[in-house]
Amino acid sequence: MQTETESTTAVTRGSAHLPQVTEARNPGMDLDMDWVMRAQANRSAIERRAATLPGRRSVKKDYQAAWLLKAISMIDLTTLAGDDTPGRVRRLCAKARHPVRADLLEALGLERLTTGAVCVYHDMVPVAVEALDGSGIPVAAVSTGFPAGLSPFHLRLAEIGESVKAGAEEIDIVISRRHVLTGNWQALYEEMQQFRAACGEAHVKAILATGELGSLRNVARASLVCMMAGADFIKTSTGKESVNATLPVSLVMMRAIRDYQDRTGVRVGYKPAGGISKAKDSLTYLMLLKEELGHRWLQPDLFRFGASSLLGDIERQLEHHLTGAYSAAWRHPLA
Ligand SMILES: O=C[C@H](O)COP(=O)(O)O
């Protein structure tokens, strides 16, 4: 959003040439509409489309809906906000237990569907553990000075221990990006090894913060080093960087996982996180996963979406779909 006096040059996009903009402007809808008028776009069509956006169906086929059910079972339902409260976390946990409405579940022919995990900051771990008691849904705690990972090393290790003690079964650690950016792979390996040891029996997901690693080559190398040092999962991002999960980064990380399995026989999980909020995007990720790593990875023990708002869009798409044509395909979500 541009807020000050500025001068932009004409931009060519297809055959449309956007005009120069030189006057002072304020943020807001007026600005967007102003742009539309100048570009001589069809304003009423854009307004109509915008008005129907919340209700539009992007998932229209039974097989897509079946994949969305699969996606739900692999979401780390996340809240990582400074204003998180026990009440918000309890509501999130209730949603993780019952991610779709009971009548929808019945219509889908499913007895039970839950998310893969609930992901919170350390302070909220006890609340989440209590709220999920008996559900079998694990609590994941972000740790090691999330999101920057720049607190003193002994405190980062201690934070892992505290979260495990509080009942977190999964720990999402952030790596020190500077080790990657300076090519200090030994330091990254040793850091990851110590994080792994501090987790004990808990699963450890290594957050690479790929948007801050500078190149895909660095992403591949960091993936490999973290897997060698014992990461159970490698994860793209914290959700707090300006660039989070992307398909190119996912392709690189999935291929690193495949390569690692080919060489060692060890299966490492993959978690794209940050900015994945649309049902349709989740389908794209699952297709990529299936193509690159195969059927075995289509399970919550080897794949998760780290997402705070994806479930809402999936639920909306499923509701729309159910009010449309219903078919027996619903009864056979992917095993
Ligand atoms: O790991 C999870 C992310 O922090 C969630 O990011 P999001 O709010 O963009 O979905």
From TrEMBL:
It catalyses: 2-deoxy-D-ribose 5-phosphate = D-glyceraldehyde 3-phosphate + acetaldehyde. One of its GO terms (biological process) is deoxyribonucleotide catabolic process. The keyword Magnesium does not apply. Keywords: Lyase, Schiff base. Belongs to the DeoC/FbaB aldolase family. DeoC type 2 subfamily. This is Deoxyribose-phosphate aldolase. It is an enzyme of class 4 (lyase). GO terms for cellular component: cytoplasm. Its EC number is 4.1.2.4. SMART domains: DeoC. Gene3D superfamilies: Aldolase class I (3.20.20.70). It comes from Aliiruegeria haliotis. Pathway: Carbohydrate degradation; 2-deoxy-D-ribose 1-phosphate degradation; D-glyceraldehyde 3-phosphate and acetaldehyde from 2-deoxy-alpha-D-ribose 1-phosphate: step 2/2. GO terms for molecular function: deoxyribose-phosphate aldolase activity.
